[in-house]
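re: that chain from earlier
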Amino acid sequence: MKKYDVVIIGFGKGGKTLASEFAKNGKTVAVIEKSSNMYGGTCINIACIPTKSLVHSAEKRKYLNTSKEEFYTKAINQKDELTDFLRNKNFHMLDDQENITVITGEASFLTDNKIQVKTAEDEFQVTAEQFFINTGATPIIPPIEGLKDANFVYNSTTLQERKELPEKLIIIGGGYIGLEFASMYANFGSEVTVIDGNEQFLPNEDRDIAEEVKKVLESKNVTIEVNSKVESVKNQDGIVVVTYNHIEEVRGNAVLLATGRKPNTNGLGLENTTVEVNDRGAVVVDDFLKTTANNIWALGDVNGGPQFTYISLDDFLIVKDQLFGDGSYSKKERTNVPYSVFIDPVLSHVGLNEKMAKEKGLEYKVVSMPAAGIPRARIVEQTEGLLKALVDPKTKEILGCTLFCSESSEMINVVRVAMEAKLPYTFLRDTIFTHPTMSESLNDLFSKVE
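^ sequence. v structure.
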């Protein structure tokens, strides 16, 4: 039996940061990760970092004369080098600390206070005063006829391992992950078809934004089939055939399943504990991320919150404040969470859009402008897109903002800071920005508010 002060299951952003905090405070910590290929967590190994590396490479292809097949293989290799470097760095960042032990193995709860750990060489039990579940999320595999037996079917992780560029890529799922891959592979030179089960394209976005995104993707030779249900997947003559809406067929060299992700709780043995799991498989937590067990917390995607690395980091801040601070910070204080979808150009959003404001019955003023009017957009030859903002006419505070334009992933953070500080829209309207930049377009956008 091994004993630690703290056991963290999963090497994700929240968990690894928390491990260092505990070690700094003199606690002995075991970080248990079932795969040596996942040191550092989802973001570093299979999500944010590798996909953004590929997005960056894909955007450069138009400037080079290398064949698309050769260029793609080099981009995959470059991505692998980056993730290998970061994985090794993250492992040593924890394991080299005196109070932290990284264990590569599978953990399963036996009780609220004890787990079983199975490594490649051994099996043993571990006890601790506190446990933190940080196991992330895993792809959802839809129940489609023939899917399990078909070749050339990938998820967002395994497609990144493929060294050959698919001439024709079929993406099942029209959400943000699917569209990010659609844009990226179209830039690499694939012919892409997106089969979207939603009745409307990007149903959570305002229609003007959604239509602009659709127009840009279609200009990249991406075909989008909305309100379409996939019936079957099968192999035929060395390719894969996807049937949808009973009679429609599309043929390709690869299929990407982009049908969402679910909390990764399988195999954790939570049925042996007093930890509750909801009907979506997420670990139930309170506003301070504590589970229904007194000594167990859950951080990151596994607790059913927004699936962003920066939310996992914020989860760490909540737990840190609870255990080492005054305990005042909780999920209740987490507002105006921004997001960016790295299609080309990037789609970013914070706060409310028109659809949400109408559903809430709020009074608002809305302004918008095309990205083509921004000098910087002309310089970087990325004039597609639309900028949009909502303002409260009484308080003059910004209710929300959607930026579909070059460099929006940086700009949206500026807007979020203004919203969190409850500054009037006039602050961004009148702020001095450097020129020529994309940020200065916020002057123009908020100048449109009457």
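Residues 390 and 420 are 15 Å apart (CA to CA).
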